[in-house]
Amino acid sequence: MSFSSYVGFLDGTDLEDLAVSEAFLKYGTVSTVAAGNLGSRPKHAHFDVSPGTNTSAVLKVSSVPDASLLSFLWRSDDQDEHVFLKPPSGNTIDLGAFSSLVGSSQVIETPNLFAYAFADESLRGMNNLLIQISEDDHNWTDGNWDVGITNPSGDTVAVDIYAWDGNWHFSDFAFMSHIDYSRTISAPGTADLAVTVANYNEGTSDIDSGSSRGPRIDGTKKITVAAPGASILAASSNIQSLWISRTGTSMATPHVAGLLALIRQASSGVTGWTDFTALTAGTGGPASDQPPPSHQSPPLDNWGYGLVDSVWAVRHVLDLPLVAGTTIEDWFGIEDVLSSPEDLAVDAGLDILNVKSHRAATEIGLAVTSRGNPDYSGANVLSIHLDWDENTATGRNGYEILVNVTSGVATVYEWEGVSYSPSSLSADWWSDNVTVFLRLDRSNPNKRGYVSVSTSNSTMSPIDQTGPTLLLNQWRPIVENLTVEISEDSFDVSIEVSDRDDMPANLSIAWSIIDGSLDLMDSGVSVGTNSTSFQYDVAMEDYDFIHSVLFNVSDADYWSILPPVMLSQTSTYLRIVSATLDSQVVRVGLFVTEHVTGEVVVEGYALAQAVYISFQTAGALPLNLSLAGTLGIYQIDISPAALAAGEYEVYAAAVSQSGASVELHMGTLQIVEDNSMVVILGAGIGALIILIYFAPRLRAGKRGDAMD
What is the enclosing helix (H) or strand (E) of 20? Predict the structure, then answer.
């Protein structure tokens, strides 16, 4: 995605943000999103306002076009702050206490400003006041304005203001003070589960100056990754020239989308978590503890986890069985851990050039490449020396494991205090042209270990030998799945991770529950495991703002902060299980008392902020009526007095706390005007009148007959 917006809360709760996160959680769809291009533009101001004071930024206004907007964003508990705008001349415009504006819109009509104002609060408690020019007759007087916030009381508030005039290059709307190039990520790059991409400039080997920076406005870690996005040859809309050079995060984003497609192809993942974390784990390649563009953990505000590395990201999910038949091509992208210069004085088959390693949790594979075809079917020997316990005091020269490949057999020996003895560890070997492959059990899977390689002939003296190297952490942990299920008053959260070269004993998983302000509500940690679960109890009626869960996954050398997952927007979703009407025909009329009745059953009802029934007919606005229920069962008992006679399509609908809605068609309802009771009543009244009128005469006639 390359569209950008600064209209909204920018805290992950805008509608496009929620759509991106829901697609991830529900369908395993990972969205790559441009970070934006305000990294060097004076379009964002940031300042703090202490209680009892006011603070403002200077905003330059110059013939602003339609669709220009000024967005104020801050967080507070009392919402007593006032947004004010002081024009170049004339009276200051005070919009009043935010608490009196929230949830409403108004027209600002003064000699210096004629615009719309919208005030709202996000699901995470972010206040937003948006001032927008959207019509030709709107006006914003040119000159320097002071725009800011008065904070009468309470805590100090951090204020972010965005000035937008339709393009990040335009200077019609620009700040002249309190300019801040961080927190400039645009929606939907602000989505919790978006892969937000920064623009890496290959010419400068750095993040392009125009690329937007994190963190997100609420402090959440963003950017996700960086990818090449400067001077990219892109398709042109000009038929005269089919290609054009462009620079921006929109150019970097497709690069990452293609990489995610490769990861999905290699992993066959369906949850999205494997794809997302393989991408971030692969950034920067295998190098560690180095400045960007190498892997960064935790992510940086400009680089994220680092520059994407397609090979290393795919390698994190691409299976490589350590069995006979694999070739050096199968090891593509795996770097050398050892190298040795050519020595033309020795046999080419015994002259080691390089050694690669591929480590799994309980075994290790080594690929030893020589200058010529090696022959270990006879007296020649390939020796692998391993120091699994990383203790130089054990073993010969510190190596307690020795593997010899000779006479066509790989034999493993272990140090027994004074000499090597045959080991119970197993090893296999095979060759592919000039490369010999070895698979060996790891005797101490909880240690990385040192390795060196040597060759010898019938003299048993080393012909070629590499120096020792520490087998560093090769693979970073990735997440297989993360689920959240909701019951009446709690969330059941579980996570499963994997790490190719680490046993569960080397892994740890920490979690925390945060509120909209990122304040810690609860936390825990599981050490020595690749999975964990916990239950978080919460009274939904006290759930003022959405809580989120954060995970921190570590393998001792690397740790990764996962993006927040809203606890009301999870793999168990708000769903209408059934919705039925007791009758498809309801009569209305004088003295007719039939009601529209039925039942709606909602799964995940604790997530719902409203459940209602909607009557829709052509040429009229729908009539929506709220329903009340218990334990997810909502009874329908509605008088049809507000419905005119006719045909209606009836829907049951539920709205979640995150603003998402679900609906289910219940059928067609006929409202029939039935005046039969009027006729019957009229006939009865007429009969009564007749009876009253003629009854005396009948009685008189009977008396007369009796007298005769």
Answer: helix 15-27
Nearest Cα to Cα of residue 613 among 628, 603, 632, 595: 628
d(CA 37, CA 169): 9
Cis peptide before 422 (omega within 30 of 0): no
Alpha-carbon distances, residue 61 vs 115, 165, 186, 231, 556 (angstroms):
14, 10, 22, 31, 52
580 to each of 558, 586, 637, 647, how far by Cα in Å? 54, 14, 12, 17
**Tokens at residue 241, please?**
């020239």
290 vs 675, residue with greater confidence: 290
Tell me how many degrees the CA angle 214-274-554 measures, rounded to the nearest 5: 70
| 163 has a pLDDT exceeding 80 | yes
User: What does the pLDDT look like over 315-362, one tens digit per residue?
Assistant: 999 988 899 989 999 999 999 999 999 999 999 999 999 999 999 999
Gyration radius from the chain CA atoms: 36
Which one, of 134, 142, 176, lies nearest residue 7 by Cα? 134
Checking phi first, is residue 589 left (phi over 0); if not, alpha (psi -120 to 50) or beta?
A: left
Stretch 55-81: mean pLDDT: 93
As a whole number of angstroms, the distance between CA 620 and CA 649 comes to 12
Q: Which amino acid is at 20?
A: V
3-state helix, strand, coil in the chain (%, to 5): 15, 40, 45
Q: Rounded to an integer, what distance in angstroms lies between the CA atom of residue 136 and that of residue 561? A: 47
Q: What is the pLDDT of residues 228-253, one digit of tens each?
A: 999 999 888 887 788 889 999 999 99
Name the residue among 124, 5, 6 with its Cα closest to residue 569: 124
Three-state secondary structure call for residue 186 = coil
* The predicted structure's pLDDT at residue 123: 85
Looking at residue 577, what is its pLDDT? 86
DSSP state of 692: H
Which of 290-294, 390-394, 467-471, 638-642 has the weakest average pLDDT?
638-642
Residues facing 55 on adjacent strands: 149
Q: Which two tokens stand for residue 59?
A: 């905003």
User: Mean pLDDT over residues 565-570, rounded?
Assistant: 74
Q: What is the three-class DSSP state of 641?
A: helix
Q: What are phi and psi of 533, to 5 degrees?
A: -150, 155
Closest by CA position to 566, among listed 521, 519, 504, 514 = 514
Cross-strand pairs, 703: none
Cα(134)–Cα(148) distance, integer angstroms = 22
Secondary structure class of 214 (helix, strand, coil): coil
Q: How far is it, in rounded angstroms, from Cα 176 to Cα 676?
A: 76
The tokens for 476 are 């970073």
Residue with tokens 């004085």: 345
* Secondary structure of residue 515 in the 3-state scheme: coil
For every residue of 265-308, DSSP letters joined together read HHH--SSSHHHHHHHHHHTTTT--SS-TTS--SSPBTTTBT-B-
Amino acid, single-letter form, for residue 355? V
pLDDT of 644-669, one tens digit each?
Answer: 888 999 999 888 765 667 888 999 99
SS3 at position 258: helix
The amino acid at 515: D
Q: Residue 315: helix, strand or coil by DSSP?
A: helix
Confidence of residue 683 (pLDDT cuts 50, 70, 90): low
Report residue 177 as tokens: 């003070």
